[in-house]
Amino acid sequence: MRRFWFVLLNAFLPISLSAAPAVWEITQHQMTIRIIGSIHVGDASFYPLPKAITEPLTTADGLIIEADLSTTKPLRYPKTDITTDAILTQPQKKTLERLANTLGLPAAPLLESAPWLTAATIELTLAAKAGMTPEYGVDQHLVVLAQKDGVPLLPLETAQYQLDLLTGDAEDGKALLQAYLQPATKSEANFRCMIESWQAGNTRNLAQFANNPEMSKPLKERLLYLRNQDWARKIMRWTVERPGEYVMVVGALHLVGQDNLLELLKNRGFSVKRLTQADPISCHLLP
Asked: Where is the signal peptide (predicted)?
């Protein structure tokens, strides 16, 4: 379950533009960061990652990540006070049952679970059906490389904080679950399109996913916008406390769309430069 939480450098050699997952370089004063967006699950086709990320990592002063999941303390899971069955309408239950059937999941345990856990189960099952696992996630891959080279990890959040984000709303993740209640064919097509968009470095497509109208505004505020603002404040503080050269990996949707992290840092005086170019793709977010 930890893997679900879900959903860089002036001193290094210059990198020529090439089609690949999007990589940016941001600089202010004595801090330079190479940034790549992560897909938290993946497969072997994701690798190798762009050299614009992997080469600087070997000598970086640190790898900035969302949370260090490898050494976390035992997590405090909330009690299931509200079940999925209790918060869904009858039409929504029918949609969930059809989706569960297509994904090969029994519907009864999903209905008995907390809404956030039902959403997480659907997300992970969609990924598994597409042949993707957390072990191949981009953030996990870079953490392993950093630990191999003795590069310190700099978490922006704790794993407990991320869990609380998913479970801490008034209805135990109802809004999150509703964002996943789509016909299976649509869910699978959109999931595959998001992966293809990331691999091609197509940030325009990724921005459509970040701005997806099926996610409620309060949910986007909690999972994206407020966290972006918090991360920007921490990075600004680190420009004074931790000057140096860094690599950073965070969820790809934090780097595109409304109030994205790159935009917030640019507004705070960072220069922002993209180092890779996008490949054209034909898929798009299904409404």
From this structure: 1-19
Q: Is residue 280 part of a domain?
A: no
In this structure, is residue 279 part of a structural domain? no
Q: Tokens for 265?
A: 């840092």
**Number of domains comprising the chain:** 1
* pLDDT of res. 71: 67
Omega before residue 48 within 30° of 0, cis: yes
C-alpha pair distances (Å), 224 with each of 75, 142, 166: 22, 22, 12
Whether the model pTM is above 0.85: yes
What is the DSSP track for 50-73? PHHHHHHHTT-SEEEEEE--SSPP
Kindly compute the dihedral angle of the four CA atoms of residues 11, 16, 20, 23, in this order, to the nearest 10 degrees: 30
The candidate with the shortest Cα–Cα distance to 133, out of 248, 29, 42, is: 42
Residue 149 has pLDDT above 50, yes or no: yes
CA distance 245 to 257: 26
150 is a domain residue: yes
As a whole number of angstroms, the distance between CA 185 and CA 92 comes to 16
> What was the pLDDT predicted at 75?
85
Domain residue limits at 50: 2-274
Query: Is residue 247 left, alpha or beta, with left meaning phi > 0 and alpha meaning psi from -120 to 50?
Result: beta
**286 inside domain:** no
Given a cut of 60, is residue 11 above it in pLDDT? no
Sequence-distant (6+) residues with CB within 8 A of 16 are none
Interval 157-215: pLDDT, tens: 998 898 888 887 767 788 888 887 877 778 888 888 999 999 999 999 999 888 887 78
